[in-house]
Amino acid sequence: MKASLVALAAAILLAGCASDSGNPQYSLTGGEQGVFRSSNPGRAIPISQIKGMDERQLQATFGAPALDRKDGPTRVLRYRSDGCSLFVYVSDGRAQYADAYDPQLRPLANTDQCAGSVAAQRRTA
């Protein structure tokens, strides 16, 4: 009886480890959605307005980046406010894409709000 219970428990445990998809889903954040809270949120800036900005326009809008990293042909600029981090990806001297994370590095659904708060709280070099 005891052996059959152990076998049953092992079978249940192993069944929980099996995956149907064949493609495992990995996440560093546990899939949690970020929460945006800012004491000075400013006015939202749409991603469509950020895309295509050159470095001078990015500097005028967001101030000095907290991080400027070059990965091959792409530069990653990180800007911060009290409520989020905004990452802007620049290729050929123009912004191509942007994404945003809350202070716990959970992705934000609305990058526009983060961009507005960064602009309202822009840093000087």
Ordered list of secondary-structure elements with their pairings:
Blueprint: H1 2-17, H2 47-50, H3 55-62, E1 67-71, E2 74-80, E3 85-91, E4 94-101, H4 111-120
Can you give a write-up of this model?
With 125 residues, the protein is an alpha+beta fold. The protein has one domain (33-120): Beta-lactamase Inhibitory Protein, Chain:B, domain 1. Helices cover 30% and strands 22% of the residues. The protein contains four helices and four strands, in the order H-H-H-E-E-E-E-H. Strands 1-2-3-4 form a four-stranded antiparallel β-sheet. A hairpin with a 2-residue loop joins strand 3 and strand 4.
**Spans with pLDDT under 50 lasting ≥5 residues?**
23-27
Outline type: globular
Number of strands: 4
Which sheet architecture does the biggest sheet show?
A: 4 strands, antiparallel
Assigned CATH class: Alpha Beta
State the helicity in percent bands. Answer: 25-40%
- Rg, alpha carbons: 22 Å
Task: Please state the second-level CATH architecture.
Answer: 2-Layer Sandwich
Report the CATH topology name: Beta-lactamase Inhibitory Protein, Chain:B, domain 1
* SS field, number of helical segments: 4
Query: What is the N-to-C succession of helices and strands?
Result: HHHEEEEH
Throw out a few tags for this protein.
four-stranded antiparallel sheet; Beta-lactamase Inhibitory Protein, Chain:B, domain 1; 4 strands; alpha+beta; 22% strand
Structure, briefly:
30% of the residues lie in helices and 22% in strands.
